[in-house]
Amino acid sequence: MTGDGFSRPTDFDLTRYWAESQRSFRASRPSYPIVLRVRDHALRRFKPTAPMVPADDDGWWIVHTDLENAHEACAAVLAQAGDAVVLAPPELATMVRSAAHAIAESHP
Question: What's one Pfam family here (predicted)?
């Protein structure tokens, strides 16, 4: 604590400033949008960015979500042990298949 004071500008609007700061922060975050087919019990692992659509009557959903990058997305899908399937983008599906194959090969 310095004991120094300050004067807030009379036209400063904290609510507007905070809302703009949040918008700016969200816009600056890395974004990697993906589409998954997810079993109902694994839905809580993904934050939807669009309304979810039932994929079938067997407990699967189509989920649009957004993660930071392809590596984070691959790890999130692999962590579901088959309860999340990549529909888009195709390069993520390739990455998941490759990683799953490497995991299988390393566990004889």
Answer: WCX
Structural domain total, the chain: 1
Contact 87, 62 (CB under 8 A): yes
Does residue 90 lie within any of the structural domains? yes
DSSP state of 56: -
Give Cα separations from 9 to 13, 17, 75, 93 (angstroms): 9, 13, 47, 52
Distance from C-alpha of 83 to C-alpha of 46, rounded to nearest angstrom = 12
Residue 19 domain-assigned (yes or no):
no
Residue 40 domain boundaries: 30-106
Render each residue's pLDDT in the chain as its tens digit; 108 residues: 788 888 888 999 999 999 999 988 878 888 999 999 999 999 999 999 999 999 988 999 999 999 999 999 999 999 999 999 999 999 999 999 999 999 999 998
